[in-house]
Design a protein that fits this description.
The structure holds two protein chains of two kinds. Chain A is mostly helical. Chain A has two domains: 89 residues, RNA polymerase sigma factor, region 2, helix turn helix motif (Rna Polymerase Sigma Factor, Chain: A), CATH 1.10.1740.10; 77 residues, Arc Repressor Mutant, subunit A, CATH 1.10.10.10. Chain A is built from ten helices and no strands. Chain A is elongated. Helix content of chain B is 73%, strand content 0%. Chain B has one domain. Chain B is mostly helical. The chains are: A mainly alpha, B mainly alpha. Chains A and B meet through α2, α3, α4, α7 and α8 of A and α1, α2, α4 and α5 of B.
Amino acid sequence: MNLSNPEFEAECIQRILAGEKQLFHELIRPCERSIFFLLLSLLGNETDAEDAAQETVIKVYLNLRLFRGESQFKTWVLSIARNEGLGRLRKVNSRREDSLDAETDETTGDYTPAILTSWREIPLEELERKELGEILRAAIDSLPAIYRNVVLLRDIEEMDVRETAQALRITEGAVKVRLHRARALLQKSLAPKLKGFVPKRKGLFGWGL
Amino acid sequence: MRIDCKHVWEYISAYIDGEVDAELRAHIDKHLETCEICSAVLDSTRNVVVLVADGRVFELPAGFSQRLHERIDQELKAETG
């Protein structure tokens, strides 16, 4: 969702700083989802992500006068969320964070997609939504963090390449490479699982005969 | 220019996002016309993108927003008080 409205945001910020503090609720509301899912992708569990999301929002509020309008408000907010998430990762474990910051990617390399000619014929409405959600989340969770973040912002939150690059502090080129790689990995891991949902209609579509 | 399957796979993501130039798009389209494997790979990748973007699949935890705004209120009160 990309419903940012710079004029509304700028006016809101001005009024909040002038004392209409309650307006902060409205200012932050359109960013909530993205904050949570970015943190979920970094921290890997909902409890930590929610806690970090609350901290992020308070930091946004306390630092509001530092927002200069040079980037979109949401992008600025997400970079604060990202810092919050990375800070927690540093504290919690010594997990290598350099891979999250890396500007360079390994070469795209060859990959072989899952060749499942019938998967595209799955009637999606027949999938149990809950089960589908679990499968998708598990697949995204299992992506390396640098890919997961990009999928989250580009494909789930539908941010554009530039905003994603700014929020993650990587180049636009890196966003594209990582997104491509992530989608390829997802296609590969999801296609076989989702194929299990296909009712026994093999041959109906002229495939696999 | 003839392009092979691996070449097509390399550009699938950019193709879905409409980020390949007209010439390459034409080559890919031509390949897709005759290659069932690549068109299935394209469709399944596109399915993945559509599914992942479905907001109903990725829902915020129940009560997330309410708890967040309560926390904001606490902060606002603490600041005033």
